[in-house]
């Protein structure tokens, strides 16, 4: 009986090890700095004129940390230098700057089976987003590009994968 239990334990461990290795290998593919190449579609629930020549960067560390920044509009009105701009800018200018920039940081986890990466927000430009999980489907395009596809439907629910049209294409920075 002990031999059977030992054999079953060994077989179980052998079966789990490749899955864990696959998960780790997949998570390692994200590690590095990536620049935004393009955005396709519009985030569900948001206006269609949200982006105009967007740019951005997302960084994944081997320690499981993520930092993402996105400039939604290339023609942002400049502020005065240093902190003077924050002091002298009008309320309208500040609102436009806020509306045209997205940023957050936190940790991330990869679910190889589901084909998702989850950004666990610890801080965000948008107040109150701490503790939110941004779940994204991902699709690697070779070694140097991947798509992130948000699963949210803009109403608190989840889209079917086939219905997701909002996609962000990222390219590894070398």
Description:
- The chain has one domain: Lipocalin, CATH 2.40.128.
- The chain is an alpha+beta fold and 174 residues long.
- Strands 1-2-3-4-5-6-7-8 form an eight-stranded antiparallel beta barrel.
- The model has no long low-confidence stretch (mean pLDDT 87).
- It has helices spanning 2-30, 84-88, 91-99; strands at residues 32-40, 55-60, 65-71, 101-111, 116-124, 133-141, 145-150, 167-172.
Task: Give a quick summary of the entry.
The protein is an alpha+beta fold and 174 residues long. 25% of the residues lie in helices and 36% in strands.
Q: How many domains is the backbone divided into?
A: 1
CATH class category: Mainly Beta
Name the shape in a single word. globular
Which regions are unreliable across 5 or more consecutive residues at pLDDT < 50?
A: none
CATH architecture: Beta Barrel
Characterize the main sheet. 8 strands, antiparallel, barrel
What is the fold's blueprint, element by element?
Blueprint: H1 2-30, E1 32-40, E2 55-60, E3 65-71, H2 84-88, H3 91-99, E4 101-111, E5 116-124, E6 133-141, E7 145-150, E8 167-172
Antiparallel strand pairs: 1-2, 1-8, 2-3, 3-4, 4-5, 5-6, 6-7, 7-8
Looking at this protein, list some descriptive labels:
Lipocalin; alpha+beta; eight-stranded antiparallel barrel; 174 residues
């Amino acid at each position: 009986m002990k031999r059977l239990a030992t054999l079953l334990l060994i077989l179980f461990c052998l079966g789990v090890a490749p899955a864990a290795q696959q998960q780790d290998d997949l998570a390692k593919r994200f590690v590095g700095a990536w620049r935004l190449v393009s955005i396709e579609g519009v985030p569900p629930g948001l206006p269609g004129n949200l982006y105009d020549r967007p740019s951005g960067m997302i960084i994944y560390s081997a320690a499981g940390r993520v930092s993402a920044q996105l400039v939604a509009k290339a023609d942002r009105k400049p502020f005065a230098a240093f902190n003077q701009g924050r002091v002298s800018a009008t309320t309208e200018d500040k609102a436009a700057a806020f509306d045209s920039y997205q940023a957050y940081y936190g940790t991330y986890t990869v679910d190889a089976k589901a084909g998702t990466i989850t950004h666990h927000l610890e801080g965000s430009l948008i107040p109150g987003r701490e503790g939110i999980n941004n779940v994204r489907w991902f699709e690697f395009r070779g070694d140097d590009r991947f798509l992130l596809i948000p699963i949210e439907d803009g109403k608190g629910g989840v889209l079917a994968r086939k219905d997701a049209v909002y996609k962000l294409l990222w390219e590894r920075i070398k």
